[in-house]
Amino acid sequence: QCRIFCPTGAISIRHNRGEVWEALSDPDTRVVAQVAPAVRVAVGDAFGLPKGRSVMGKIVNVLHRMGFDEVYDTTFGADLTIMEESAEFLERVQSGEKLPLLTSCCPAWVKFVGEHYPEFEENVSTCRSPQGMLSAVVKEYFRDPANSGGKKTVMVSIMPCTAKKMEANRPNSYTKGEKDTDFVLTTTELIDMIKTTGIDFAELEPESSDIPFGFGSGGGVIFGVTGGVTEAVIRRLAPDHAKETFQEIAECGVRQEGFIREFSIPYNGTEIRICVVSGLANARTVMEQVKSGEKEYHLIEIMACRRGCIMGGGQPRLAGKRTKAARTAGIYRADSVSVIKKCDENPMVASLYEGFLKGKEHELLHNHSFCAK
Ligand code: SF4
């Protein structure tokens, strides 16, 4: 078994390609994939396509050819995360408790809090990550005999991140005693698997993801870059969906240069102070300032990898300045062409909340104890 090392220092963990091939060859198993936002802008150049181009449609096609029964989009999970996290944020702002809210979608950062700042564990959002939410929802959906067709479901998540393998094994990543995400493949593992098939990836026609969990908003796509979670939360809090509003949000400071971005936005008479951080050394700087009382924020978004998931430890490694810029631009381009920009305007999200998710929100979408444990 081959082992790889996470450059964030979060974990040493093994490849999962063998187990996934095995599941794909079992006729009694439904194999479901979810594909994270950052993956789609890092696969194309391994097959001679321009750097940073979003190739989500080709990834869906190749996964279907490889035998995946359903291919869903983690941006749907990101939409669920924003629905829950923005509600949690507003509750905390109103009560003035457990502020600043610390984001929870990066498992390497959450592990870092548990190890170095345990006094802030309560500040970490109780929301599961987009991977965690989508896997829990998919597994619950196929637990229903009306949807399962008598097959066992194996959930495979394709991530830019080696730490997501660790997240999938945490006790909080189980529902009804069953693991939500069975296997995590990194982007580089996916590229290796595609190469093994001999399929000419560059020539594939794009295909759409499957329903009912294959469609996310532009706000879900930008989770792939630092500041994306925060920008999606601000969009959710915005009262309208005018182009000018989205432009104003993009220019509020959330997309400024740098690994520590501070800015504030007005909301219902309160000036909301926000900090967006990428890189764990920068996270330490900010947490020390918060601990000493030198800085005060309402919301801190932290991603362990500098520039966010587009530069995750599971992405192809040779990424110079041009590649980094191209991946960032690719994510923002994918957002610009999204018809729906806000999670609450995603009709599939709305129908999920009105349908089988009703009454199960806490069980499927939240961690029941500090999420690094
Ligand atoms: Fe994983 Fe890095 Fe993204 Fe955190 S920032 S979720 S460690 S890829």
What's the alpha carbon Rg, rounded to whole Å?
19 Å
- List the bound ligands: iron/sulfur cluster
Q: Which structural class fits the helix and strand makeup?
A: alpha/beta
| Strand elements, count | 12
Q: What would the keywords be for this entry?
A:
disordered N terminus, single chain, 15 helices, 15% strand, 373 residues, Rossmann fold, alpha/beta, four-stranded mixed beta sheet, binds iron/sulfur cluster
Describe this entry's structure for a reader.
The chain is of the alpha/beta class. The protein contains 15 helices and 12 strands. It has a 4-stranded parallel beta sheet with strand order 4-3-6-9, with helices on both faces. Strand 11, helix 12 (280-292) and strand 12 form a beta-alpha-beta unit. The two termini are 26 Å apart.
Task: Produce a short descriptive summary.
With 373 residues, the protein is α/β, with parallel strands linked by helices. The chain is 42% helix and 15% strand.
Task: Walk me through the topology.
Blueprint: E1 3-5, E2 12-14, H1 17-24, E3 29-35, H2 56-66, E4 70-73, H3 74-95, E5 101-102, H4 107-116, H5 130-143, H6 145-148, E6 152-159, H7 163-169, E7 174-175, E8 178-179, E9 183-186, H8 187-197, H9 218-221, H10 228-237, H11 243-254, E10 260-267, E11 270-278, H12 280-292, E12 299-303, H13 321-336, H14 347-354, H15 361-365
Parallel strand pairs: 3-4, 3-6, 5-12, 6-9, 11-12
Antiparallel strand pairs: 1-2, 7-8, 10-11
Helix pairs in contact: 3-5, 3-10, 10-11
The structure holds iron/sulfur cluster (SF4).
